[in-house]
């Protein structure tokens, strides 16, 4: 039998899916085992039969929440035909991403990075890994765009990637704190201007 369809795997996935929004809203420290058992309808013994501890659940949930965002963006990237269009995706799609994850407690990377900073190394490392992956994807698109003649030679791909990530995550934070998602429009317009600025 395929391990992905085993009862244990289905139970793990069930726990992850049922607790994903709770962890994203309440954070690791704020989510109790009672929250987990209430959301899943499972006993504490069943939870610990599938995960070693709450931290292991949180790590799996973070990856699940991160993948929801990643998959939404990736679907739009695959539709974009040029490297310029791919970069412009980041200046448009995140409004929809943030609107959807906003209903689930906000951006999982931002939430986890802020909460885990200096308090939970495994979660902090997971957030860092997600950011490094995001940056790598952006740098790769920019470098390919330079090679294809779409972006200017000498463009600082890494600097541009970090700036775009900082703008988007900052926009998420401001929009969530103020409950005004018009702020995200302003941030994404700035991202688009940055991308247009490196066009060859």
From TrEMBL:
Q: Alphabetically list the UniProt keywords.
A: DNA-binding, Transcription, Transcription regulation
Residues of the HTH tetR-type domain: 9-69
Which residue numbers delimit the DNA-binding region?
Answer: 32-51
Q: Does the keyword Disulfide bond apply?
A: no
PROSITE patterns to which the protein is assigned, alphabetical:
HTH_TETR_2 (PS50977)
What InterPro entries does this protein's entry cite?
Answer: Homeodomain-like_sf, HTH_TetR, Tet_transcr_reg_TetR-rel_C_sf, TetR_C
MF annotations from Gene Ontology: DNA binding
Q: Quick check: keyword Cell membrane in the entry?
A: no
Q: What is this protein called?
A: Transcriptional regulator, TetR family
Q: Which organism is it from?
A: Dyadobacter fermentans (strain ATCC 700827 / DSM 18053 / CIP 107007 / KCTC 52180 / NS114)
